[in-house]
Fold this sequence. Notes:
Blueprint: E1 5-10, E2 13-18, H1 28-43, E3 49-54, H2 77-85, E4 90-95, E5 98-100, H3 102-108, E6 112-116, E7 120-122, H4 136-144, H5 146-155, E8 159-160, H6 161-167, E9 172-174, H7 178-191, H8 211-219, H9 228-241, H10 244-259, H11 262-276, E10 295-298, H12 302-313, E11 318-321, H13 325-344, H14 350-358, E12 360-363, E13 374-377, H15 383-396, E14 402-405, H16 412-416, E15 425-430, E16 439-444, H17 450-462, E17 466-470, H18 478-495, H19 499-509, H20 515-522, H21 524-536, H22 547-553, H23 579-591, H24 601-621, H25 628-639, H26 648-655, H27 657-671, H28 680-688
Parallel strand pairs: 2-3, 3-4, 4-6, 5-7, 6-9, 10-11, 10-13, 11-12, 13-14, 14-15, 16-17
Antiparallel strand pairs: 1-2, 7-8, 15-16
Amino acid sequence: MSEVVTYELRDGVGVITVNYPPVNALGKDVREGLKAAVEQGAADDGAQALVVMGGGRTFPAGADIREFGKPPQPPALTEVIDAYEHADKLIVAAIHGTALGGGLEVALGCDYRVAVSSARVGLPEVNLGILPGAGGTQRLPRLIGADKALPMIVEGNHVPAAKAQSLGIIDEVVEGDLAEQAIAYARKLVGDGAPRRPVSEMEVKLEDPKVFENYEKSIARKKRGFLAPFRCIEAVKAAAELPFAEGMKRERELFTELVSSPQSKAQRHAFFAEREVGKVPGVSKDTPRREIGKVGIIGAGTMGGGIAMNFANVGIPVILKEVKQEALDNGIKIIRRNYENTAKKGRISQDDVEKRMSLISGTLEYDELSDVNLVIEAVFESMDIKKEVFGELDRVCKSGAILATNTSTLDVNEIADSTSRPEDVMGMHFFSPANVMKLLENVRGEKTSDEVVATVMDLSKKIGKVGVCVGVCDGFVGNRMLHKRQAEAVSLVAAGASPEQVDKVLFDFGFPMGPFAMSDLAGIDVGYRIRQERRKAGDPEAQKPSWLDKLAEQGRYGQKTGAGVFKYEEGDRTPKPDPEVAKLIEDFRKENGIEPREVTDQEILERCMYVMVNEGAKILEEGIASRALDIDIVWIYGYGFPVYRGGTMFWADQVGLKEIHDRVKTFHEQLGGKQWEPSPLLERLAKEGKGFHDL
C-alpha cells in the first residue's frame, strides 16, 4: 500500500485515510493507495464495513494538477472507483473540506456519504473545458435525477453540505469528530441491515423527457461559444438513455474529445494563470504584510460605493469621505439599495444586509481618516484633483497606511510624488461595477515598497478579486491595449465598415459585446474627455478627431442618454442601429475625402485583435507586465475576453506569432501609424518560432 493512504481497523470498521497534503489530490500514488486499501479492507475479517476519508484539511479535492498534460498512469481513477463500488463490504465516504471532481466521483463509488456541515461537493471540470471523466456524469444523475445533476455538472458550482443533503448526494450531515461519527454511522448501517447501494445499478429519474433540450436552451446565451457545457449535457443524456457500461463508454469518448480540444487547453491555461498571477516576480513570499483592519474611500459615487461593498462583504469596516452631505447620503443609500436587491434575489439574508451596512460609515472630514490602514481615492479623473486629495491624505493618515488611487489612466508615480511617502502609494484600479467585476489591476509605482505590493495583492484575494500587479504607463495594461483596439474600430468604420458589423465580428469571436456597444455602456463622453486631454497636452499619439467625437459633441453619450453609436429604447439596453449615426458617418467620410470601401470581417478581426497583440508585446518589452499570463488574466477578468480562448497573448500563441507579425508588418506598410510598428519582441519571437508563453 502507498504511504499516502493508510488503513486501520477501528471499532470493527476499516478506516481508509488519504494523507497527501495540501488537498489529497488523486495522483498516481493516491490512486494506488486507495485501491490497495479497499482490497485490504475487503480481506479484513475484523472489518464489518469500511470508511474512506481525507486526512488534514479535506477529502480528496480532485485530480493532481501536476499530472495535467502528461500520459495517464495506472491505475485509472475509474478502476479505483469500480473497486470500491464492487467491494463486498458496505462503504461510507466521510467528507470534510471539499470533495470536488474526482473526489466526489470516489464518494459516488461508495454506498453512503456523510459530511460535516462546512463541507462542499461539486464537479467543476467544466471550468477546465472538460467533463467529469470517472463516472461523474453517469453516477450523479442516477443518484439524484438528471434535472438536479445537470446544473452541478454543466455549471460546475460547489454545493454546500446542507444543499447536497437535500439533493440526495449526502445521506447525513454530522457534527463533532468526523472519523468517530462516520464509524458510528457505518456500524449503525450494519446493525440495521442496511443494503449495499451501488449507484451504477440505479436508474436515472427523468421527470421531464424534454429536460435536456430545455436545459440546453436555457444556457445557450450564457455559455455561447463554449464546447464543454453542451458535451456535459450529452453525457448526462447518455446516463438516462444507455446502460451504465455504455454510458461510461460515451462519457469517455466525450471526455477524450474535450481534453484534446483547443478550448480545454485554453481554459486549463487560464486556470493555472489565475493561480500564478498572485505571485509577483521579485516579491518574496516571506515579505511582511500590513494588517488592513479599516479602510477609507474618497468619493461615495458609483465607483467609491462599489469599492466600499467589497470590504464590507468580508467584514472590514469602511469610512466613505465626501465633500457634501447630500452626495454622501445618496452614496450610502445606493449601497443599501444594491444590498437589498441582492437579498431579494436570495443571495444574501436581510441580516447580512444590516451587518454589512453597519460596517459602512461616512464623513465630510479628512481628519476622520486618521486611523485607517488603507485609503482608496476614487474621485474625478483629473491629476490636479488627485494631487490635492493625496496632499490631504499625506497630512492626516497615520504612518504605515497605504494610500491607493483608483485611476484608470493617470501617472501613479506623479501622484505618489505629491506625498512625502511615495513608498506607501499604489494604484488599485477597480473595474466598474466595482462590487461585481473580478479584476483588480494593482499598479506598482517606481517607489512602491514590496511590503505594500504584497499586502495589496493578498488583500485583492481576500475581497474576492483577481489581483494582477502591473507597472505605470498610460492606461496600464488593459486600457492601453483597449485604446488601440478602439481606435482601430473607429478607423475601420471611417474606411467603410458599419459599427454593427465591427461589433458583430468581436461578439462572434466571443466577447460579451462589441467595441461600440461597450462604448455606449461605459459612456462615450468618458473616452472623449481622455482623448481631448491628450490632444491639449500635445501628445503625438493622441487620436485625431473622429466621427465618434462628433457623437460626443452632440451629447450622444450612450445608454445613459438613450443614444450613442446605437439608439436605445426606454427600459431596453439592446443596441439598435441608428440612421442618424449612419448619416453622420457618411458626412464625416465626405468631409475627410474618404471613399468608403468594402471591409471584410477578417480584416476587422485582424486589425482589432492584432493591434492588441502588438501592444501587449510592447507592454512585455517595457516590463509593464512581467509575464504574458498577467495580460491574459487582465483581459479575461477585466474585459470579457473569452476564457475558452485563454487570453489575448495565449490566443496569439495559438494563431502563431509569425502569422501575426507578418500581418502587423503589412498593416504598417498600408496604414502607417505607431500602433502598427511591429514590436521588436513580436519580431524576435516570430523569427525564433516561439510564443509569448515561452518567455
